Give the backbone structure.
Amino acid sequence: MVKQNGRIVTGAHYGLKDWLVQRVTAVLMTAYIILFAVVVWISSPLDQAKWVAIFGHQWMRIASFLFLVSLMWHAWVGVRNVLMDYIKPVSVRLALQILVIVSLLVYLVWAVEILWS
Amino acid sequence: MEAKLLKKQRPKHLNLFKISQPLPAIVSIMHRISGVLLFFPGIPLLLYGLQMLLESADSFEALHTLIQNPLVKGLILMFVWFGLHHLCAGIRYLALDLHYGIALAHARASSKWVLAVSVTLTLAVGITLW
């Protein structure tokens, strides 16, 4: 039997997954930032048409989307850790966690709209 | 007797405003604060900027005018610093995860490097942009 003592609904899920997610998303974002810096360095876009051209490539859109998914996931794990440290009442913590999740999902939809319109 | 005395003193509650923090602790709390600020208002500001950049020639012009404002420039540079500090401190944590730089002297030195490199890169970005 797995002991459930002291475990609460807004806890950390007590596993390796979130710890690992935080690191994998961090490495993915770092790779994208380097890629983005190189692309901007090479094409040195000064007018809007050039910026649109950079994000016109499908691979750039997909890479940017992966970056933003990593960003939202990373932000979720990080902000949840902060909430678990400072917000003690379960109801308030759960409400704030839901607010964070909903806002991150809205940001993702917004990102898709920006990249593919 | 001695063990009993020791037991009674725990847990210790340190007054964080009275003790002087070692540098790794300062880098750590800055990693946390910068992370929260990058989440909000960082992410919506980033997406708003990306939208203005790509939407139309008019929105691009509006963005161009907006970032001429010295106040906006300072704000952008501040968020660049938050991001770079968060990135450099994060790389330090990845190294620590792999058991590099665990010794106290190394850990103190690397936290100094995190502060120095992120400030230097922020200045470099500032100079490149303006």
